[in-house]
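MODEL INPUT / OUTPUT PAIR
PAIR INDEX: 1
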Amino acid sequence: MILIDGKYINVKGYSHKIPLLWGVDYFTHDIPIFTLAPSENYQSWARFFSLYRIINYFPQLMVCDDNTSLKMAARWAFPKIRVQTCWNHFKENIRRDLNVRSDPTYRYISVAIDNILSHRQPTWMFNERFQRLYDKYSSNPVAQQVLTNVQKNKNELLAYKWIRKSPYTNNLIECFNSHLEARLTPLKGFNSFEDARLWLNGYILKRRFTAFTSCSSKFKHLNGKKSIELTKKKEIVLPDLFG
């Protein structure tokens, strides 16, 4: 089960930041694949997912933001994969579409959806709560449009239920993004694509070869272990790269 995201980075020669495309295995916290790309288009994501096939990594479930190109590329590479749309990103898209931060007109519907998409619940309860909202605002075209979109995306909002203990948000990889940003901020960017790729390769290798020390809750068992040790084949002897 993999969490996927793009982290944007300053690279000289590009008019905009370009994305590091990477994924974190939820249960091991390992980063098996990453690639630096000019943009988050379908071709970039398709190449990214093809690398997973090369290492025989076939995820059953992917958690990601509501990125059409990403989802299409994942389904091209893994036709049987289930896609879980991150609840936080989905709710943020609703807030943006309704402009609730500057205009309170439709804030009530955004808040109502936030309350439902805030914790795990049985599917029947999910359906019942949204049906009540749909009935309550049956004469409100804006609310109806938003709630119809929820129904349209229901399979991707509930895909996490297919694998036990799977998440419904991208919080883990967002945490990895924050750690990376803390390292990138002092650098202020890279002089070239190759410089960026080389630095990121070293950074990610260091993460994979460093034992965890501060995992908590259900991930406490990872402390003292290196993520790469949890995903490599048993017969592989790891080199001492950072000893």
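PAIR INDEX: 2
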Amino acid sequence: MFEALGRPARILLLGGTSEIGIAILAALNAPGDTEVLLAGRDEQRLEAAGKELPLRVSTLAFDATALDTHQAVIDAAFEGGDVDLVISAAGVLVPQEVLNRDPLQAGRLVETNFTGHVTTLLAASERMRAQGHGVIVILSSIAAIRPRKANPVYGAAKAGLDAFGRGLSDALAGSGVRVLLVRPGFVIGKMTRGMPAAPLSTTPAAVGAAVAAALAGDGDIVWVPRALSVLAMGLRLVPRPLWRRVRR
């Protein structure tokens, strides 16, 4: 996707230690002179993640819950020139029983998984609109389609993010900036370690490959795996009394 730039591409990964985010970067097979900005809180983990990539990597301090710093983070990312791809991958997963006992932690989860995406991506989209090109990748989830009683806070945050992504895509139509909304199923990885896999589960590598393939096309939504789109249609049709019986 970077061949026509005539210069090394620049990529910003918000949530710079995200396993899925790193998998997307790896799947791009970008030229070695591509510049990647890994934005996150833990400098050591960011540096370790950067060593996994055969690209020019630098780091940027970023806290998804520090909303008043997000404009400055985006400004810093764009100081070095146009940013061609922004991957919004910040996220946490906390058991609902923990959130039930600690509503403040539930609020922080919403800030990380939803609100922080809004503040950073509104700032980034304005910079991309001004430069006239770019792609924004937003990591949504099958959980956004119909939140379940087992994880209503996480599901609600993803539902908000999914709606925001669709609206942002419409708002940027004709600007040269594209939004790609990614809806994976249960991802078997570090975040879900110890949890039983759900039907149509996937992996970070599979998500990365699907996103890389989608970036080569012109669609605006990618399901991982593809069959998940059919399941999603079915989920919307389940009567609510039956839906309440779903345990996970």
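PAIR 2 NOTE: The chain has a mean pLDDT of 93.
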